[in-house]
Design brief:
The complex is a heterodimer. Chain A is mostly helical. Chain A is 76% helix and 0% strand. The radius of gyration of chain A is 20 Å and the shape is elongated. Chain B is mainly α. Chain B has one domain (13-112): Up-down Bundle (3 helical TM bundles of succinate and fumarate reductases). In chain B, helix 1 packs across helix 3 and helix 3 (53-81) runs antiparallel to helix 4 (85-112). The chains are: A mainly alpha, B mainly alpha. Chains A and B meet through helix 1, helix 2 and helix 3 of A and helix 1, helix 2, helix 3 and helix 4 of B.
């Protein structure tokens, strides 16, 4: 006899590792990763904002910091994270109002999120470098 | 323990809505930022931009939106992946402190500039 009380035990933890992710799933997990990265990076944005607004020399110092190759890579990665998060979020808003919810459309828009955010990040990255 | 029915009580609806409203505020701020971005850029124009009352107000709304949006999003990540209750609670408290700290610092920067 099955244990009926076990069904009511919450929260439920599912092991999702045996599943391979389709493109919308990849968009979703990168939405989470990029969001967490932006959350952790808040302190760097704030530091640069404070430095750049503090004084003429602070502004120059912030510019100097951002010219370092590692800083440039981090800036480009942040821009990509922001663009991916924003594009995936906008896709989400459309799905919420029932636009593009068919499987075919949802897969295409998921592809579009990756392509648009990568292309925009690449074009900004090239100009920054 | 309170015997609650999981469906029909709008649990999570407020967070769901807050996540979307704050997202729209952040998109609006991004568009505003692209429009008002000084060209050519320099300390004087950059500083003058953030000295404007409306820019401070807009940035304040951005900070508030990021605070709420990041709290809901990061909390959901902890709820989904961190199974140990004590660790999850610690991470959630740390997230709140981090976000409130960042928001306070942001406002200090804005009104000092």
């Amino acid at each position: 006899m099955p244990d009926l009380t076990a069904k009511r035990r919450r929260p439920l933890w599912f092991n999702l590792s045996p599943l391979s992710l389709p493109v919308p799933g990849l968009v979703s997990i990168f939405h989470r990763i990029s969001g967490l990265a932006l959350f952790l990076g808040l302190i760097a944005f704030l530091y640069l904002l404070e430095l750049s607004l503090a004084s003429e020399s602070g502004y120059a110092q912030a510019g100097e910091l951002l010219r370092h190759p590692i800083a440039k890579l981090l800036v480009i990665a942040s821009i990509w994270a922001l663009l991916h998060h924003m594009c995936a979020g906008i896709r989400h808003l459309f799905l919420d109002i029932d636009i593009g919810t068919s499987l075919h459309a949802a897969r295409r828009s998921a592809f579009a999120v990756f392509i648009v955010s990568l292309a925009m990040a690449a074009s900004i990255g090239v100009r920054l470098w | 323990m309170v015997n609650r029915i999981i469906v029909g009580a709008h649990y999570g609806l407020k967070d769901w809505l807050a996540q979307r409203v704050t997202a729209l505020v952040m998109i609006a701020y991004t568009l505003l930022f692209l429009v008002v971005w000084p060209r050519p850029m320099g300390y004087a124009v950059w500083n003058a931009l953030f000295a404007q009352g409306w820019m401070r107000l807009a940035t304040f709304l951005l900070v508030a939106s990021v605070l709420i949006h990041a709290w809901i999003g990061v909390r959901n990540i902890w709820m989904d992946y961190v199974k140990h209750t004590g660790l999850r609670l610690t991470l959630q408290v740390a997230t709140i402190l981090w976000l409130v700290g960042c928001a306070g610092w942001a406002l200090q920067i804005l009104w000092k500039a």
